[in-house]
Amino acid sequence: MKLPGYVSKGMKLLEENGYECYVVGGAVRSFLLHLPVHDYDLTTDARPEEMQEVFRDYKTIETGLKHGTLTVLIDNQPLEITTFRRDSVYPDHRHPETVTFSRAVEEDCARRDFTVNALCYNPAEGILDFFGGTKDLKKKILRCIGDADTRFNEDALRILRALRFAARLNFTIEENTRKALLNNISLLRFVSMERIREELNGFFCAPVCAVCMKAYRTVFNAALPEGKNITDEEWEHTLQVIDNTDRPLLRMALLLACCPSLDSEKTLNELKYSNHEKKQILNLLQYRQADVSTHTAIRKLLRFLQVPFEDYVRFRKALDPQLNDAGMLAEYQEVIRRHECWQLKDMDISGSDIAALGYQGKEIAEVLEYLLDLVMEDQIGNRRQLLLEAAAAYPKKRS
After folding, report:
1. Which domain-ending residue is among 139, 171, 195?
2. Total-model pTM
């Protein structure tokens, strides 16, 4: 496993000071699966104060020092390092009541969720595998470490993590793990909506979602706000279209489009989507059946879209595979190529020009919208003199 320079440097510093250090978790899993590695997490027997001493000449961020985590900036790259630890009971089904630091890497691995996430590596020892994670990787199996019921009872978020890993890695959830997962669905009420949204977005990044959603429908019903209201017909519709795109935001929009029993705005609010994301998803839903049959219709639609046109086309194509998406994109490119007018800023007239004709306040905006409609309908050209004449003759102009 070839490590980036900043990771090797951090490990070497700890080892030169007499401490053990390993790359742990997702980086090792991805390496063994021949997938890209984006993040490296280290685990060490050095206590937090000992890590601070080792990295005294580096900028550090006390990410979660009481839980043993320190982030070190090495060569301008953040490197998260956590002390080996044992967790106590999880009274809220999410977080351990206390954390005890350990000197044994196996104890640290034993507290983790799945065997494939408990693999460790350092250049001198190679891969350390205490729980059969490499075997499960080869068999494409997701299995809890130890007793599965205990693992999910400790941290209910692991229920959604299991589905995310299964979908993204195309793994089968091992039978005892699957039973325990389903037995503990009620614990999802202890998971914050922000974390549910993050796991859903991660799940929606998987190339194929429908198979996993079908097998674990009850989990999604419990995780989604008012998910219990989704009908069989709505669920089947969702499964038919969800794999027609691979973009998380579009997949959430598809889910809401297929499930009218869910209040779209309320669902997005409860899941704590950002205002920008909410605006985009609701905009897709609002114009999901807009006329796209002509050049003029597409130009008029552009006026109201708050998402990139390409994403809108993907969304419509996912809902209707028979849609002429190539034709839509060609018409859009023609609008752009010819610099056609489809928004107020494209017009050859301004608000000050309208004000100079005697209009005031809201009237100015009304007249500009009226003129834009005329241009969009090809009733007049987008030329200043023509626009001024049309504005002067505006039907609602004051006497």
Report:
1. 139
2. 0.87
Compute the distance between CA of residue 288 and CA of residue 319 in angstroms, rounded to an integer.
9
State how far the Cα of 240 lies from the Cα of 242, in Å rounded to an integer: 6
For residues 4 and 26, state if they share a domain. yes
Of 139, 160, 181, which one is at a domain's C-terminal end?
A: 139
Single out the residue of 178, 229, 175, 224 nearest to residue 204, CA to CA: 224
Task: Return the DSSP state at 3.
Answer: P
The CATH number of whichever domain residue 114 belongs to comes to: 3.30.460.10
Return the exposure string of 258-272: e unless at least 16 CB atoms fall within 10 Å of the residue's CB, then b: bbeebebeebbeebe
Residue 293 falls within a domain, yes or no? yes
Using alpha carbons only, give the angle 194, 195, 201 rounded to the nearest 5 degrees: 90
Count of the separate structural domains present in the chain: 3
Phi/psi at 244 (5° precision): -80, 0
Q: Containing domain of residue 292, as a range?
A: 287-337
Q: Are residues 3 and 81 in the same domain?
A: yes
**pLDDT digit string, tens, across residues 233-286:** 999 999 999 999 999 999 999 999 999 999 999 999 999 999 999 999 999 999
Measured CA angle at 224 (ends 218, 230), to 5 deg: 65
Q: Is residue 269 part of a domain?
A: no
pLDDT digits (tens, 9 = 90+) for 26-47: 999 999 999 999 899 999 999 9
Is 253 within 8 Å of 216 (Cβ atoms)? no
Distance between CA atoms of 245 and 60, rounded to whole angstroms?
Answer: 40
Q: What are phi and psi of 304, to 5 degrees?
A: -110, -10
Which residues is 61 bridged to in the sheet? 71
Asked if 201 and 248 count as a contact pair (C-beta separation under 8 A), the reply is yes
